[in-house]
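ping. complex inputs:
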Amino acid sequence: MKNLYIARSPMVAARQLGLEMVIMSATDSTLFTLNEVASLIWKSADGATPLWEIVNSTVCKEFDVDPEVALADAERLVSELADRGLLLLTNGPTKPSPAETERGL
Amino acid sequence: MFKIAAADAQALVIKIGDIPIRVFTEDPDFLRVVQDRYVGFLSSETHAGIDLKLDLTAPGRISSEEDVRVARDSMRWSAERGDFRLDWNSETGRGQVRQSANPYSLDGALRILHTLLLAARKGFLLHAASAMRNGRAFVFFGRSGAGKTTISSLAPADATLLTDEVSYVRRDAETYLAYGTPFTGELAKLGENVSAPIAAVYHLVQAPDNRLALMTPADAVRALLESVLFFAEDAELVKLVFQSVCDLVGRVPVYRLEFAPNRSVWDLIS
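pong. complex structure:
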């Protein structure tokens, strides 16, 4: 799972409301709510940054948590969100990273 | 006073929420029925932009659909319910309603058409009562039996009823407006054709005592979305409605209002 990349589905609408992220599936209007930690991962799901890097740079930075435990929890979360059609999971980047975009690649 | 011009003897313009819709029929008797039904919401505008031809049929079922079913094929929308079928082209603005000479069927078609029109205009229809007082609008939503009709009937004499059933909510610059609608509930009384900035939104819950509590934004969005009237299974419009509800919650306070059925509840509404 080292090379797991996550991207938000284009078939959802999401809005940060307070500490929670409220997500609506545009296909069946189902509503989901993410807590503060899950919201951090959701916001970083750019299809360009590997999940382990997202966890290290957001969750581990904000919360006092073991990186391996945090990554395992994050993998379970994104798998569940993918099952519900909210996230797209791939084994490689689907979009250029911010650094590549900056270099015009 | 509204008059039907001779050249448009079989057409009239119904203007709800500042969106005029011109309705045509070859049946002058039914046109008069429609005119009576939407009194107060008729406009003298001749170029409505949105045209609906009423194709009247003999009484009976038009569709096998019990619930409303809305579908889209590119720019062509269709909506079916047992008593009517609406076909409408969002590019040309023209469409037709196949129904019997029953104003309630037209009412259903107009509600659905307005949900589509509003989604693209940062608005939505809400299963809610609303009233205007001192130039500000107050919206009361909740599931059936929550007390929308009750709180409307308890309103002070200086309040103007916008609707006791379907509230018309639409963004206007930096605020949201509530418009009066002719869509009635148990009061069977048309709302006044006026609008005002929404001062507050209340989630109605019947209780032994009156109590007001500010809802968290996430709770407010979740509760409001349960009361939004939207039937189209169209991802882009669903997203727009979701964003509009979130935007409203970001601009207007939403309260949980527990209330006993007495007039003192209006002391909490300001």
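Chain A touches chain B at residues 11-13, 15, 17-18, 20, 22, 24, 26-29, 31, 33 (CB under 8 Å).
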